[in-house]
Amino acid sequence: MGEKVQVVAIMKANCRHAYLATCDGLQPRVRPVSPIVEDDMSIWVTTFSDTRKVKQLRENARISLAFVEQPDGEKAATVIGEAQVIEDLGEKRRIWGIAWFDLSQYFPDGPESKDFCLLRILIRSIEWRDSWTGGTKTYLPSQE
After folding, report:
1. Residue of 12, 84, 75 whose CA lies nearest to 41
2. How many percent of the chain have pLDDT more than 70?
3. pLDDT tens digit string along 3-14?
4. N or C: which end of the chain has fewer CB within 10 A?
């Protein structure tokens, strides 16, 4: 199994245990999120447009996004990169359709809702491990 496939598998398996860090001035802020990970390693986060995280990302797009296997964290992947607010309605509709959870419970007006915000995670690198004893590796998308 190739490295990219392994990293994607770890992220997909742990979308329910993911944590996004943003910058609030000089103070990092971490919160649980529910990312949507595609086979090609595209990563998306849905949220409300008026959240503190969106405000923080508009001021500083740098993020870390950690996926952690439960209960002991043996497998993990931490994305280092940036988050981009996506305004394109077609992309919002596409991600709405592939989400692994029911977005309509949060956004009853659908992907057209002014409250629905879509974030694309732009990956610079991913630090990951598939076991505690295997050590941490670094995946660089630019080396594909």
Report:
1. 12
2. 98
3. 999 999 999 999
4. N
